[in-house]
Design the sequence.
């Protein structure tokens, strides 16, 4: 049995753990070191805060048999600059890092920043159910475009997204890695 619920501030340790599954290389590049514990601390601070792209406010927890199994974080691409600024500020203040990441999204789409399922729950179709949930909530009910990036080196993920109705609409570079930009639009349902 799969259940979805809005994340709370208290979910921050779980969300950080799942986010790291989806974006470990990016977080290491952000903080300037391959230190898992420090990367988790960085994410936890942002997840507990409000009004940034990694905030609990933008996250949904997926439970499988009443246990937290995964999470997804998404937000309106029109607010990327505003949501990213606290991340850049924290990097400068705490890590003395000034980075200028490329824009992974833009106005006109709700952007799926991360989808992650804990290892022990993988292979149960949870990732697919997360996509179904997002498609239903965003494109069907809200009639908005839903977008994501898929790494060129991950054809299995691209195939899953295509099977759900996403199409490649362009390319984007994120932290020096080439990605395909995919979207599903309300009229594609």
Sequence:
């Amino acid at each position: 049995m799969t259940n979805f619920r809005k994340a709370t501030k208290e979910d921050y340790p779980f969300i950080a753990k799942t986010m790291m599954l989806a974006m470990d290389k990016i977080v290491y590049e952000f903080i300037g070191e391959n230190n898992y514990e420090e990367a988790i601390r960085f994410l936890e601070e942002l997840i507990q805060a409000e009004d940034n792209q990694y905030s609990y406010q933008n996250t949904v927890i997926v439970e499988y048999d009443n246990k937290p199994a995964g999470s997804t974080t998404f937000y309106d691409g029109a607010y990327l600059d505003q949501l990213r600024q606290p991340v850049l500020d924290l990097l400068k203040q705490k890590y003395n890092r000034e980075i200028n990441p490329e824009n992974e999204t833009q106005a006109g789409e709700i952007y799926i920043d991360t989808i992650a399922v804990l290892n022990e729950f993988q292979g149960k179709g949870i990732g697919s159910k997360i996509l179904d949930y997002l498609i239903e909530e965003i494109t069907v009910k809200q009639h908005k475009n839903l977008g994501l990036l898929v790494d060129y080196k991950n054809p299995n993920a691209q195939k899953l997204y295509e099977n759900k109705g996403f199409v490649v609409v362009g390319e984007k570079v994120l932290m020096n890695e080439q990605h395909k930009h995919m979207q599903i639009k309300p009229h594609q349902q």
User: Anything to note?
Assistant: The mean pLDDT is 95. Helices lie at 12-31, 36-48, 80-95, 126-140, 155-163.
